[in-house]
Amino acid sequence: MQGTAKALPGAAHGPKVRARRESGLSIPTLWVTAAWRPRKERGSQPGTPGSEGGSGALSGKSFNSSRKGVPGGTGLGSRTQGGWGPGPGRVLLQVQAPGRGRGPRAGPAWEPGLRPLHPPALGSHARPLGYAQAPPRQIRLRSVPPPPARVYLPCRRRRSRRCWTRRPAPSHRPAARDWLSAVQSEGPERGRAFPAGAPEAGAPGCACAVRAAGLVPAELRSWAVVGQAWSVGSGSAAATGWGAACRMPEIRVTPLGAGQDVGRSCILVSIGGKNVMLDCGMHMGFNDDRRFPDFSYITRNGRLTDFLDCVIISHFHLDHCGALPYFSEMVGYDGPIYMTHPTQAICPILLEDYRKIAVDKKGEANFFTSQMIKDCMKKVVAVHLHQTVQVDDELEIKAYYAGHVLGAAMFQIKVGSESVVYTGDYNMTPDRHLGAAWIDKCRPNLLITESTYATTIRDSKRCRERDFLKKVHETVERGGKVLIPVFALGRAQELCILLETFWERVNLKAPIYFSTGLTEKANHYYKLFITWTNQKIRKTFVQRNMFEFKHIKAFDRAFADNPGPMVVFATPGMLHAGQSLQIFRKWAGNEKNMVIMPGYCVQGTVGHKILSGQRKLEMEGRQVLEVKMQVEYMSFSAHADAKGIMQLVGQAEPESVLLVHGEAKKMEFLKQKIEQEFRVNCYMPANGETVTLPTSPSIPVGISLGLLKREMAQGLLPSAKKPRLLHGTLIMKDSSFQLVSSEQALKELGLAEHQLRFTCRVHLHDSRKEQETAARVYSHLKSVLKDHCVQHLPDGSVTVESILIQAAAHSEDPGTKVLLVSWTYQDEELGSYLTSLLKKGLPQAPS
Amino acid sequence: MQCAQIQINHHYVGLWTGHDFHPQFPSFATCSKTELIDLSTVDVILISNYHCMMALPYITEHTGFTGTVYATEPTVQIGRLLMEELVNFIERVPKAQSASLWKNKDIQRLLPSPLKDAVEVSTWRRCYTMQEVNSALSKIQLVGYSQKIELFGAVQVTPLSSGYALGSSNWIIQSHYEKVSYVSGSSLLTTHPQPMDQASLKNSDVLVLTGLTQIPTANPDGMVGEFCSNLALTVRNGGNVLVPCYPSGVIYDLLECLYQYIDSAGLSNIPFYFISPVANSSLEFSQIFAEWLCHNKQTKVYLPEPPFPHAELIQTNKLRHYPSIHGDFSNDFRQPCVVFTGHPSLRFGDVVHFMELWGKSSLNTVIFTEPDFSYLEALAPYQPLAMKCIYCPIDTRLNFIQVSKLLKEVQPLHVVCPEQYTQPPPAQSHRMDLMIDCQPPAMSYRRAEVLALPFKRLFEKIEIMPELADSLVPMEIKPGISLATVSAVLHTKDNKHVLQPPPRPAPPTSGKKRKRASEDIPDCKVLKPLLSGSIPVEQFVQTLEKHGFSDVKVEDTAKGHIVLLQEAETLIQIEEDSTHIICDNDEMLRVRLRDLVLKFLQKF
């Protein structure tokens, strides 16, 4: 796919340099501006770009972020210094009407009042993500195409959108400088004018700006004043607002985690001027800084709350919520965090569990505390399925059932007519305890989907279950022990139900244990949130609650050494710590035993190692563990397989797709498949890479019902041959837009219509009486203008539609008659046509 | 009975509906006067709460209704239980045949009192069967609070929490420019359900208000206290307590109160029996709707603990539930005890047996808590009765004080409510506080009356494609007001309107074709805008001279001026709001003059 230059594959060191293509494109002249207001009291100082030099210097400072610090691939050591926003604060757009010049700064060369969406350097760290906060949407009409924006505008071809990644930045040059030079390469004078924010008065394009300036609604002009006033006060703003201002509406996505990787899901989405963070997970494969997403990418110094409108957690797995207390309490975020009820219930328990392992067992310092988990959960707002949650006036989110674990949800994020769907992890086939994911045909601009099993098409669930039971059964029969590492919630319950029914059917006696005290609690959650399970369980729960197990008992550490067969479910699922690892070490040496890995294992975990065939493991303390027990892998983890992903794409009908939460190679395959099958663009950004999608939202206005009904009355379907036009006047008042008929517009504005009428004298040679001439004119016109209403009035005059024709005698020449043709300006075409027709004379009357 | 129907954009939205239940004649019920509405024209039925869906099978079955029914999940599940109980109670006492001749008006007139006064007996129908219930419920589409449901692209409906019962909802019905709120059976008290969502009701054009409390004078809190103390008193004296009730709803709150009260009142040894065919299901279901419960109960679920304490009562064997008095119950039954059972009308169900059993002893007490039935009427057939009767109606729905508070908060433009809410109840005609008091006065409706809502729809939403918007040229007419003329192709699909840029006119080809084209043009060519403004004569004359018209003469007339261009034999009449150009047939000249005139005018 063009556009995305390849990210350095998991480079552990050094700067990432990416190429970016640019194209010169036209800018739409009507903007939907989710313009901006100072959101809340966002302490930061607003800034406005100053002169070019100043901005350069400033941006030198604020953009002087290292390129290497991308919270990138798997092995990234250094932390980024750059933020996703300008250090000092937001940049407000300055709006000026050049005609009404304010001081030395003439108006900008583009339409004032555009939303200062994003700073120019798309891929740079120094991106004021949060500063574009939108007031009521406005349309902006007929503006000058802001030339510098061309640099950033990808092609508007509908079907082939490009994705832009970070701009190439020679490492010796600050990003903003670099951006500036790119601008200048477009056109020197524009380049200068643009980032400076105040183009010189004579700059090309200003002439148009003058035209545009007159049209700026007063409200926006007042914003101009604000913008200016602020600019005076703040000397330290980055020169980014302008560039941002002229960009067309777009959606930007940057994964901080889960980009071409599994684990540490964290995706930043910027849509309609709103910034949303999707998931906030930890990486199981790391024990250092890299386990959490690099939030300094969002902002280095500012408060995260200022840059994010909300955070959404898709489900309770730690790779989707594990970094939440760190993010909200240690980095600092006070905005809303949305998740479903079961997630809200279970998430703190898993976090606490995680904390205990990290702090109590591994003795880590500087980890989040129990209190932090509690404080963090206080910021959570629970959502119902399908509930439309209004985050603010414009941003709304809606949860759909995802079926991955209890309470897993997909989220639709919508601003105006632009929308993004984030699937989180999902499962398209119902299993023994959960239903299948479902979404309506919501046609989002972008679908961000997980792709864990991008290349796998799994055989039927039944076969897998049979295999699983067979293996367990065989091992137990020969007296071996079966270890099933699982996460306390999710797969565990499904497998428990499976084994429970099997034990009952086959009447087995070997004990089944479930480790840790979490079990019963976990099952209890399933009982109380039974509405989230599948239909069968929901229907029968009154008679028999499937989560009350008869054969499965709590595990005690001492049981591990008991002789004889047993089946043990132990946490955690990837054998990276805790009880499952302890039991594994005890049982690994006996070839009679078996370990069944029922889910995905992240790289670096013991689970991953043994699955990839390693039989000698280096354990802590330089001890080598030889694995003699059988290792089996059963894909029970409830992710959609390739077929399922395709199915979901088909359900939602997105305009483009973005893959996360999967391995790069597999993604590549799926990407091709999606592009082939659905003919939509598919992206797979790496961590820290930004995908930008231009959108072209249509503008909602109110049409007067009178006008609409008049149009509708003329027939519903416009025929292709002769399209009927609707004529009206769009009144733009403050932020409201009304489309009314022209007459109504005049009336509403309290203006009288000025009638412009033309009367032309056409001389005809005709010696007959006036009445006869009129009659001849009538019959002539009648025969020529078949489609029009031609009438002969009793007073002798002839009308064609509303055009009046009268015949009069010539004052001097009796052989000539004067035809007076009279019409209004509105009928000019027909009037002018008639006069030219009559001038040619009348056909000879059949006398 | 509540039922209203709203027509918006030619789509009918039915706001459903309870049924008139005739407690005296349990096997019959009427639903709304179906002659009034053709049910096959109803597109959508919105259900407020589980009490308001008891007539659903009558509507969805055998009437030609083909629309969709929307309700929340708890409403459907508990509604199913209520209907199941009703059907079960009725089917326990099958009747081989039923009389219908008495429905003849002449005969009915002669019958004794309740029958004589019954209205519309001809519309009475037999109770539905479980099969019909299932079929009706299968037509329901589940929705969640605050879910926006698009109907036909024209209307959006949204259920909001109403705070009255599990899953009970108020509905917002809105188009892009109008908003109607339907508030039915709402409660501002904190009981088990999620609190009422008031904020979303704001900015309503019309608020339809119904389902207020039946007992405006009773305070539910006081009633619960009275209930507990009477219960304790009776039991301590060795008597039994009978509580006729529905299997869901207030009973959860009563059990919770008792749970707290039992130990302090020394009732720990007294068994509580809950007898209903759906008792078990009701108790189980109440525990799984965590998301629909109030905050306190939600946090309990997060622990995880069952939200309602009746789970503990069951575990400790203090509360036992049975499907009927037969079977296990007869073995376990011991007195004194407290029995919760239905039906609250005392006409059918297991409650009848207990009335018979305990009615003769003054030690026993029957406590009425359901407000739907007059307890005097309910008791009438059992008289003479020795047992004590306590009337503690617990109705948490809005009372008039709360209504006026709510209306002040929500500030709808118009309030619409049933007639009986606009005047004090007939029994207490001096209580002027027992009526809705709002400004402007509420509009009332009567049964089977059509009420036109006093707002006119002026606007509809239309979308302008970005390409078209690009081409618009706005001009500022007054400060802050800009105009742009729009000529576009209107596309309408699924009630969504979109304006697309007009197709480019085909380039004119040969002369003949061109002429034809010009004839066709008035249909699809850009319409000439309207003009506005006036022409200052002096400047106009100057402009004329600048453009090469030499001998310009100006004559004043009564209304304005006449400008004469003698050379061109042209006359221009200029008045305040009109201009008339009279010239020879010289198109060039005319166009030149036209353009000069247009310079002074604004176009629309």
From TrEMBL, chain A:
<keyword id="KW-0539">Nucleus</keyword>
<dbReference type="GO" id="GO:0005654">
    <property type="term" value="C:nucleoplasm"/>
</dbReference>
<dbReference type="GO" id="GO:0160232">
    <property type="term" value="C:INTAC complex"/>
</dbReference>
<dbReference type="InterPro" id="IPR036866">
    <property type="entry name" value="RibonucZ/Hydroxyglut_hydro"/>
</dbReference>
<dbReference type="GO" id="GO:0005829">
    <property type="term" value="C:cytosol"/>
</dbReference>
<dbReference type="InterPro" id="IPR048662">
    <property type="entry name" value="IntS11_C"/>
</dbReference>
<feature type="domain" description="Beta-Casp">
    <location>
        <begin position="492"/>
        <end position="610"/>
    </location>
</feature>
<feature type="region of interest" description="Disordered">
    <location>
        <begin position="1"/>
        <end position="129"/>
    </location>
</feature>
<dbReference type="InterPro" id="IPR011108">
    <property type="entry name" value="RMMBL"/>
</dbReference>
<dbReference type="GO" id="GO:0006368">
    <property type="term" value="P:transcription elongation by RNA polymerase II"/>
</dbReference>
<dbReference type="GO" id="GO:0034472">
    <property type="term" value="P:snRNA 3'-end processing"/>
</dbReference>
<comment type="subunit">
    <text>Component of the Integrator complex, composed of core subunits INTS1, INTS2, INTS3, INTS4, INTS5, INTS6, INTS7, INTS8, INTS9/RC74, INTS10, INTS11/CPSF3L, INTS12, INTS13, INTS14 and INTS15. The core complex associates with protein phosphatase 2A subunits PPP2CA and PPP2R1A, to form the Integrator-PP2A (INTAC) complex. INTS11 is part of the RNA endonuclease subcomplex, composed of INTS4, INTS9, INTS11 and inositol hexakisphosphate (InsP6). Interacts with WDR73; interaction is required for the assembly of the RNA endonuclease subcomplex in the cytoplasm.</text>
</comment>
<keyword id="KW-0862">Zinc</keyword>
<dbReference type="GO" id="GO:0160240">
    <property type="term" value="P:RNA polymerase II transcription initiation surveillance"/>
</dbReference>
<keyword id="KW-0378">Hydrolase</keyword>
<dbReference type="GO" id="GO:0004521">
    <property type="term" value="F:RNA endonuclease activity"/>
</dbReference>
<dbReference type="Pfam" id="PF16661">
    <property type="entry name" value="Lactamase_B_6"/>
</dbReference>
<dbReference type="GO" id="GO:0016787">
    <property type="term" value="F:hydrolase activity"/>
</dbReference>
<dbReference type="InterPro" id="IPR001279">
    <property type="entry name" value="Metallo-B-lactamas"/>
</dbReference>
<dbReference type="InterPro" id="IPR041897">
    <property type="entry name" value="INTS11-like_MBL-fold"/>
</dbReference>
<dbReference type="Pfam" id="PF07521">
    <property type="entry name" value="RMMBL"/>
</dbReference>
<feature type="domain" description="Metallo-beta-lactamase">
    <location>
        <begin position="263"/>
        <end position="480"/>
    </location>
</feature>
UniProtKB/TrEMBL annotation, chain B:
<dbReference type="GO" id="GO:0160232">
    <property type="term" value="C:INTAC complex"/>
</dbReference>
<dbReference type="GO" id="GO:0090287">
    <property type="term" value="P:regulation of cellular response to growth factor stimulus"/>
</dbReference>
<dbReference type="InterPro" id="IPR022712">
    <property type="entry name" value="Beta_Casp"/>
</dbReference>
<dbReference type="InterPro" id="IPR001279">
    <property type="entry name" value="Metallo-B-lactamas"/>
</dbReference>
<dbReference type="GO" id="GO:0032039">
    <property type="term" value="C:integrator complex"/>
</dbReference>
<dbReference type="InterPro" id="IPR036866">
    <property type="entry name" value="RibonucZ/Hydroxyglut_hydro"/>
</dbReference>
<protein>
    <recommendedName>
        <fullName>Integrator complex subunit 9</fullName>
    </recommendedName>
</protein>
<dbReference type="GO" id="GO:0090101">
    <property type="term" value="P:negative regulation of transmembrane receptor protein serine/threonine kinase signaling pathway"/>
</dbReference>
<dbReference type="Pfam" id="PF10996">
    <property type="entry name" value="Beta-Casp"/>
</dbReference>
<dbReference type="Pfam" id="PF21382">
    <property type="entry name" value="IntS9_C"/>
</dbReference>
<comment type="similarity">
    <text>Belongs to the metallo-beta-lactamase superfamily. RNA-metabolizing metallo-beta-lactamase-like family. INTS9 subfamily.</text>
</comment>
<feature type="region of interest" description="Disordered">
    <location>
        <begin position="494"/>
        <end position="519"/>
    </location>
</feature>
<comment type="subunit">
    <text>Component of the Integrator complex, composed of core subunits INTS1, INTS2, INTS3, INTS4, INTS5, INTS6, INTS7, INTS8, INTS9/RC74, INTS10, INTS11/CPSF3L, INTS12, INTS13, INTS14 and INTS15. The core complex associates with protein phosphatase 2A subunits PPP2CA and PPP2R1A, to form the Integrator-PP2A (INTAC) complex. INTS9 is part of the RNA endonuclease subcomplex, composed of INTS4, INTS9, INTS11 and inositol hexakisphosphate (InsP6). Interacts with WDR73; interaction is required for the assembly of the RNA endonuclease subcomplex in the cytoplasm.</text>
</comment>
<keyword id="KW-0539">Nucleus</keyword>
<keyword id="KW-0963">Cytoplasm</keyword>
<comment type="function">
    <text>Component of the integrator complex, a multiprotein complex that terminates RNA polymerase II (Pol II) transcription in the promoter-proximal region of genes.</text>
</comment>
<dbReference type="Pfam" id="PF16661">
    <property type="entry name" value="Lactamase_B_6"/>
</dbReference>
<dbReference type="InterPro" id="IPR048660">
    <property type="entry name" value="IntS9-like_C"/>
</dbReference>
<dbReference type="GO" id="GO:0005829">
    <property type="term" value="C:cytosol"/>
</dbReference>
<dbReference type="GO" id="GO:0160240">
    <property type="term" value="P:RNA polymerase II transcription initiation surveillance"/>
</dbReference>
<dbReference type="GO" id="GO:0034472">
    <property type="term" value="P:snRNA 3'-end processing"/>
</dbReference>
<dbReference type="InterPro" id="IPR027074">
    <property type="entry name" value="Integrator_9su"/>
</dbReference>
